[in-house]
Every structure is written in C-alpha cells, then in structure tokens.
Design a protein that fits this description.
Elements (H helix, E strand, L loop, with lengths): L1 E4 L4 H11 L4 E4 L16 H16 L3 E10 L19 H11 L7 E12 L2 E13 L15 E3 L11 H7 L1 H19 L1
Length: 194
C-alpha cells in the first residue's frame, strides 16, 4: 500500500519508512513534483496536519498523511510549539536551537516534550493520531544525528540526546514513532474489518 507523506524532508520520509516497514511504500511531495508552499496557517498541530493531508489527497487522490510536530517547552509557556520549524528563521534549526537555549539560559526548569500529530486522509475521511515523548532540554548542543531540536533534547530515562542516538534507537521511542504505531494499528484493524 502506498502512503503519501506531506513532506520534502528526506530524513522524515526515511524515518517513517523505517517505522512502517516494507509492507508500505512511503512516497513524498518530491516524488510527485508537488512544490507548492503548503500554507500551514492552522492554530493547532491538528489543523496544520489536516491542511497538509488535504493538500496531498486533493492533488493526487492517494491516501495521504500530513503531520505536524513540535517542541513544547514548559518554561517558555509552550513555545516554540506550532512555530517550531520557524522559531528563529524558517527551517534554520541552528538558529532555532540557539534561540531556545538563550531563552532558557538561567532557567532551572528544563522540562519539555516533543509532539507529533498525524492526519490520515483518504476517501473515507480523516483520522488523527498523536504521539508524545517527554524529557529535558540540555544547556548546550550534543550529537550530530537526527534533525531539528534533536541535539538539545534528552528523553526521560536516557542520558543521550536524540541526536546522539542511533536512528533505530530514536525511532523506537520518538513522538513520531508513537503516533505512527497508533496509525499502523488503525490500518491493521481496518484491514481486518474489510
């Protein structure tokens, strides 16, 4: 079964393919030469995920997944939140990380969580799946793997940032993995109902 993911991000596509396994063919916007800028003007992660899934489904007719993910930092009142990708510069995660670390400079409360909301859209409508992983923000950058805020986030019960982990290790516990597991369970249950 093909599932179109609303992204040009090769890391994200590979991560999702790894989690879903060989039973699914994961394609992306790049595979369909869809280069329009999708206006993520929703006020919540759910709204942004739906906007992306609708765009893909309307353009291709393929079962489509839009996701919106972000870092929610307790001491920053939930920021960067839905603005995570463009917090200090559009998809400039070096600047985004610097901004978060600067804002938390003298802050003892480092609690945060990553969240992913998936919206799956096909001819039967929309379905939502959410995953979260809780942890703490470091005071400096550690590791060069992963992407986004991975170098400053240590998940609970670990002493490595996401960026220091092997991809397989991160994918077992990540917010995206948690949301995708719920999505896969939904796909299996629906297939069993057919």
């Amino acid at each position: 079964m093909e599932i179109l993911i609303a992204t040009h991000n090769l890391h994200k596509k590979e991560e999702i393919q790894q989690i879903l396994g060989s039973e699914y063919i994961v394609t992306s916007l790049s595979d369909y030469n869809l280069n329009d800028e999708i206006q993520e003007n929703g006020k919540t992660f759910q709204e942004n995920a739906r906007i992306k899934a609708e765009y893909c489904f309307e353009k291709t007719g393929k079962p489509s997944v839009g996701d919106d993910s972000g870092l929610v930092v307790e001491a920053l009142g939930g920021r960067p939140g839905i603005l995570s990708a463009r917090y200090a510069g559009n998809h400039n995660f070096k600047k985004n990380i610097e901004k978060v670390l600067e804002e938390l400079k003298d802050e003892p409360n480092r609690r945060a969580y990553f969240i992913t909301v998936l919206c799956f859209k096909d001819q039967d409508g929309e379905h939502y799946f959410e995953g979260r992983v809780y942890g703490n923000i470091t005071s400096e950058v550690f590791g060069d793997g992963g992407f986004g805020y991975d170098p400053i986030f240590i998940p609970d019960e670990y002493n490595l940032t996401f960026a220091q982990m092997l991809p397989e290790e991160k994918n077992k516990i990540s917010h995206r993995s948690a949301a995708l597991k719920k999505f896969v369970e939904f796909l299996y249950s629906r297939r069993g109902a057919l």
